[in-house]
């Protein structure tokens, strides 16, 4: 009788142990999937060559990349299927993460058409796709403004699985020229804005003068010298964001601080040789969030 009880007792313990082990294994699988090691959004393996012959990239055992860069060379990610450009329209951005804060300016250049500039001292740089044509992307470059060594720890795409609504808050014809002109968007136009909403500027770069080789936006809380927080990582030491000459859309994701200040002061916008025709406030459609 005693032996029978002991067998029954240890049998129950063994079953509980098996259940616990199975749960741990399942949780581990979920965590691994969460990290994205086998996920289509993880694209670090595509970045395995360089633009300049004097550069080097090394794929490390832990999957990170040591990129020894020269000025405006490039760590190249090839996005081809059957030798044809891929459609990235299902994604809203690409992000690079670094092991240490950057010591030089960086930029992400997508399909030789549009780019996002990153200031010194950042550990993550995101290039938004929304508003741009990414239906045929053959390559994406990570570039630096000077010779340096970067350790890239992650490169990933963000799925575009959110519905957004667009509301026009300014329309006109403002040609910045050489900082000659700008415009104001009133504080009341931001009353319905929420953290995470996007400011969208519809523009054209002024390319008639061959001596003009760069184009800038500057966005500040009206009546102050303070720039918006949402695009802080893109700003140079003058507080300006670079835009590509062939881009037609520039977007800023608004932070809680941005919303608070914009509701008080409104927004002042100017820049360097950019012609702006419209500004939209793009908000998440919460009716589609479950």
Would you kindly provide a written description of the structure presented here, covering whatever features stand out?
With 290 residues, the chain is of the alpha+beta class. The chain has 2 domains: 44-159, Jelly Rolls, CATH 2.60.120; 164-285, Jelly Rolls, CATH 2.60.120. 15% of the residues lie in helices and 42% in strands. The protein has 2 helices and 20 strands. The protein has helices at residues 2-35, 256-265, and strands spanning 47-50, 56-59, 65-69, 75-78, 80-81, 84-85, 91-98, 106-110, 114-118, 124-128, 139-144, 148-159, 164-175, 178-185, 198-205, 215-221, 241-243, 249-253, 267-272, 274-284. A 5-stranded antiparallel beta sheet has the order 1-4-11-8-9, with no helix packed on it. Strands 2-3-12-7-10 form a 5-stranded antiparallel beta sheet, with no helix packed on it. It has a 4-stranded antiparallel beta sheet with strand order 13-20-15-18, with no helix packed on it. A hairpin with a 2-residue loop joins strand 5 and strand 6. It is globular. The relative contact order is 0.15.
